[in-house]
Protein 1
Amino acid sequence: MSVEAGMKLDTIITGDHVLSASGWLEPGYVTTASGKIQHVSAGTPHAQLLSQAREVVDAQGMAVLPGLTNGHTHFSQTFMRGLAGGRPLLSWLKELIWPLQAALTVEDMRLAALLGLVENLRCGVTHVVDHHKITSSPAHTQVVLEAIDQIGIRATLARAWADRGANGENPDVILKELKEGLRRYSSSSLNTRFASGPLTPWRCSGQMLQKTHALVREYNSVTHIHVSETREEVKMTMQETGMRPINWLDSLGVLDEHTQVVHAVWVDEQEMDLLAERQGTVIHCPVSNAVMGSGIAPVPALLKRQVRMRLGTDGPASNDTQDIFETAKAAICLARGLACDASILPPEQILSIATDGANLAPGKAADLILVNLDHPRAAPVHDAPSALMLSTHGCDVDSVMVNGIFLLRKGINLTIDETELIKECKLSLQKLRNRAGL
Ligand SMILES: [Zn+2]
């Protein structure tokens, strides 16, 4: 697409490596206007084009690419880093995470969400899925939604729920809140989306999974659920239902293109066939799975079946960061190590998964990031995808734009005073520890 003479542009970004829909342009440039990408082209912009732009950004030594998607985290855990502490998942949840979550005030939740969003922003994430738990009160949810508005990256709030066991909620309350959220955030033009977040098969009844999944289908949203993270969980579902977890979800009719299965570490061949057939998405969280000693997901076998995949960091209590670059490298390393095959997950493929298949093309929302590759860990660059997926850390992200607006520019957060935020978080955490008896 050519830029019409005289057309007003908001921004022109020139970069050494620009990821267009048809491949890398080295060098290349991107123009934006009214929140959308207008033009993606090889070479350098001519003088007349430069004169049409309000702002010209020189991204020399950088890669310009679509923002990354963090497919699974828990903002509440921003206050729980460093607590994996050598415990397996179930005792970690019962002894540490649930008591701390129960003690989170609305103000703690607000600060934790802001800090979690800032960390994602700084790591080049333009869309994050917060599996928002738990739901002490609607006010806890409201402050997360306000924090998302304040920081400005796109977010899906998957409202966590469980109607069985510890912290089980009244099904009517779950359905009412889900319906309200789905209705309010149903438009794809909004930065925030709403989803259903059943916590695990062993904490949710079949009947409620069916009812909530019918709602998400009605509103074109998703069911976002932790499944088969540990072997113990698989055993629990089998003892109760006689079926493996993926088979059980399928028997309920809740496994389809509106289903996001988080972890899927312990899935067998037949479950993987079903995931592919039903077009469910696996949210792969390799760092969290390894930190918790849960296992290594069978990514080579999932890829062979072309199962849809997204990357997730999982919450900071089990990772301990939300750096999706680190997650991408871990995904490559673990998959290749598991398969004893260096050809698995080439950098272009993991980059496509990390960006959720997005590309920079005219007409698309201007959600993009500038990543510095001009440093000793990455330079000199032979191959931009390798430099990004094997040599880059979140701290190399120079700028982040969402809807054509810079939220991070030259490493400076334009949305919030981070020093003040961290100060408030430290004070809040001390009080939280005291209340939770840690
Ligand atoms: Zn999780």
Note: The mean pLDDT is 94.
Protein 2
Amino acid sequence: VTLVVRGCDVLAAPGRELRADVDLVVEGARIAAIEPSGAAPHAGATVIDGRRLLAIPGLVNAHTHSPENPLRGVGEGLTLEPWLRVMLDVSGPYDAEDHYVCALAGAVEMLRSGATAVVDHLLMTPPRTEAVDAVMRAYRDVGMRAAVAPMVDDLDFTGDLARACGLPDEGAYSRQRRHLPAAELAAQLDDVMCRWQGAEGRLDVLAGPSGVQWCGDELLLALADVAARHGAGLHLHLLETFVQAVACRTLFGQGAVRRLDVLGVLGRCSLAHAVWLEDDDVAILAERGAVVVHNPAANLRLASGRAPVRALLDGGVTVALGTDGAASSDNQVMWDQLKLAALVHADPWRPGIRALEALTMATAGGAAVLGMGEELSTLEPGRLADVTLLDRSGDGLAGAADLEVALALSETGRGVRHVLVGGELVVRDGRCTRVDEDAARARLREQAERRRTRRPGAATRSAAAQLERLRQAVWSRNVEDAAGARRRG
Ligand SMILES: [Zn+2]
């Protein structure tokens, strides 16, 4: 036995009965026992005083972009299409060290607030293996469980969509990107999967096509092929905005989910957002076992709309929870997402999402995205010891009349005391044990200062305005479709 949390309370998973005053016994990376406190001496083990502490499965942030960590507040007030253009323009270049710093500081923020695992959909301009390696090293150094999905694309839809709306094609978005051939992107993915898949027992790589409307068939199929050879999944954006839904119809003549299904790549897919699903999409996603990642803060900030989470859950789709990048959700704290997910979906005419469901999304849902199922999201002997220990006497939980509801709605992350990943104490007394977290934040701030000097210039402002005009044109031409989709959601 390597570690014992003595005398804590354990919530094995949302909805399970609370076990009070027990010893959580960890052997190596896994939970060895949960037994009445003091039942065994466990001589030689590291002992953590668990009195007043509540052990829950570590939260999984199932969708973010670490390079956005020094871009908080960027493009506030803009909708997704202009926001993306402004964000890409003002962020400027990243070398491998910049990527390392972004991932490290984000991991510190997540771990200290009780998230033990992350899916980092890694935006790079241009995609390259050194950047992926740097991000992998950051998660390895800080001790966080991570799946990194190198984000790639090779298609731009704005020109076609603008023409379809009768607007001049001003190439507002495409000038920004440098597209690499599909074969080269697939070779890069194969290379990083060969070197990092399963590393340290905590690191993984997913294929990361940027989004359905940003990738041609050849690229999607090449990435899916590499992923299948490595037994890995795909992680991509899906139907975040109504503009994207219309773009898919215009570009492919079919809905985004249908296209993925026809290409045969929906099997081990996790899909961020899924705000603008069509009628049959929920059934298709459920049938194929695809997982949806809900990102309520980013959807609200970018005025993207509200994902049909109630319909997804009722239709049998597994839903996970993510912060999305810090340039659109402005922090990497999962408690904010829990609260939003549990609050924003209720309407006077139908039920919303319950606190317990939000907690399940943030734990079991995230584990499904990582392809790890109950192994990660349940505190039981034999399962991985990814555990968040919260102060039951802290501001969030001291007044809890209903513990699980208070976890989702009252806790802010300030009550996180210790965090275990793979049985290792990576946060102790609120501080990261493996890295100098003050230095990590100082380096992130340096980077934020450097990038802050890059204000949006005239060309960026004009492109953003074109994209906003395009968005408005799409809306005004498809008012009835949009209204129908909103009614269904
Ligand atoms: Zn995203």
Note: The chain has a mean pLDDT of 94.
Protein 3
Amino acid sequence: LVIGSTGLLGQEMVRAADARGVETVGTFAHGVHADAMRLLLEDGEEVRRRIEEVAPEAVVLCGAMASMDECERRPRDAFDVNVEGPMSVATACAEIGARLLLFSSDAVFGEHGAARLHEFDMPDPPSIYGKTKLEAERLVMDASRGNVVCRLGMLYGARPRGGRHNLASLVREECAAGREVRLASDHFVTPTYAPEAAAASLELLLRGLKGTWHVCGPSCVSKYEFALAVADEFALPSRLLAPARTEELEHLAPRSLRACMSNEKLLASLDVRMSSPAEGLRLLRSERR
Ligand SMILES: NC(=O)c1ccc[n+]([C@@H]2O[C@H](COP(=O)([O-])OP(=O)(O)OC[C@H]3O[C@@H](n4cnc5c(N)ncnc54)[C@H](OP(=O)(O)O)[C@@H]3O)[C@@H](O)[C@H]2O)c1
């Protein structure tokens, strides 16, 4: 059961499962999606009913209020969806003996001295979003030690139909329309190609691995540098990309400016591909998506 199969990661999770011959059932929250069923994480009764109906071997929880600023604006809703939701899912999974894979985020970390953040580093989220994700991690691991938490770096890939932009899709759309995009040159992230994040996370689940994993690409780059790589790969005018300081961009949510994770543990445990931005963007273009 892929909860949130209509989002950026969820769509890739369904594809990755398909490629491995694993049957999936997907869910959405808003809009109309003929190939998925509706499930609202904040409705504990619906969550329990759906999980009982589908009786999956495993639940992959991609669904979330994933916009950091939206969580800051609506903290109560963020808590209901990102904390109460995973708790209902974890309880229902424990009841039927299904394993649960929760997606979390580098946003669980605050300002940190470390050049790269490892699974053993201490989380200290500055934002509501990060706090909800950390709380969900704890609930999910407490519900069963067999569960898996994958903390993702900044995802990029094909924008889902009617879904949120990611940095690659935003830069492509804005630059193609001739509009300037301002990007933080002081905010460093680990860009992660969504299909590879999905494939690696699925592999963890299929191999029976448990606990917390950092699933991210190898490079630590600023958002501005990543945008330059997008413009380069898609032959877009890089003069439309304007470097800015994060504080000038007026985000609502506070964020750590150096949230680069290490994928060392993942690569030591699995034979998976995690591409650099140049490689991942080339794959994205070659897949014509
Ligand atoms: N994107 C990133 O850079 C990033 C980085 C780190 C971690 N993550 C985490 O990775 C996961 C997937 O992120 P994403 O970028 O794929 O998110 P996304 O594109 O925004 O997709 C979110 C999915 O969750 C569903 N959803 C939204 N509200 C829901 C609710 N109240 N109940 C049930 N489902 C709901 C959406 O359904 P509808 O389409 O119907 O709205 C959609 O399928 C999230 O847990 C996110 O926090 C993402």
Note: The first helix runs from residue 8 to 19.
Protein 4
Amino acid sequence: MLLLATQALPQMREYAHPNLGRLLTPRHFPRLAETLADGWPVCVDNDCFNGYDPEAISRLFAKLLPVPSELARMRKACPFMWEMPGELIAADGTVLERFWLSPPPDELPAIPPNLLWVAVPDVVRCACGAKEHCPKEHRGERCGPRGDAQATLERFALWHTWISHLPLAFVLQDGSEEPGMIPWDAAGLTAVFVGGSDEFKLGPEAARLIREARRRGLYAHMGRVNSAKRIQYAKSIGCTSIDGTGWTTWRRANLPRGLHAAEHARERPVHWQTSLPL
Ligand SMILES: [Zn+2]
């Protein structure tokens, strides 16, 4: 399992490890092209947990890959629109000509194999009732992240056509377990990213959705995983990567410990609290 760290390229090289990957964010992506060329697994978070900034997100997306034409992205996002034959019909109803709409031109940029996924912007609200997850300095006792699955699905639909050339990760939230709340068939869907509240992340519904994602050949990522115990739990339910700010806060002490845990975690069911096999 990969431990994705938000850190610069020199730190990536210093702590080189087969289980280490880089997590870019709209606020931190220096030497992006060099990181990809170096061969590091690269994933992209949207930082919506800390506040939705569509401009910053767009700047990062544009840096990742050359942006193809609108038509090419539309064709990728909505292939069904080009699968219907057209007919030229005269006023009396006779069919003058039958034709197929032209197939999509091959003008989408190739995705580097080590660019694994890009988290499509999602919606995180606060348990206190605020529209967005409250920033650290304003956090009160009742505050805590609460994913909004319906709003996340709507935000995914809003972005999907424009970024359909990227490998996309859909963010699972509190409520994503309800029928029809995950765009499984969206073109370009490559991963699921488990966000939302701790109760959701560590609950049986998230575990079931991760199993379903893996069965469909998608990556599964769990955000905000800051202990070896949680790393083992994430691995046990089938996650392919995790991230957590704790591993880079006291990097020298924590990052090697996290990488060791990521390397030795086993995909066997364990209880999330006791780590005992189930
Ligand atoms: Zn709050």
Note: Residues 126, 128, 130, 134, 143 surround zinc ion (CB under 6 Å).
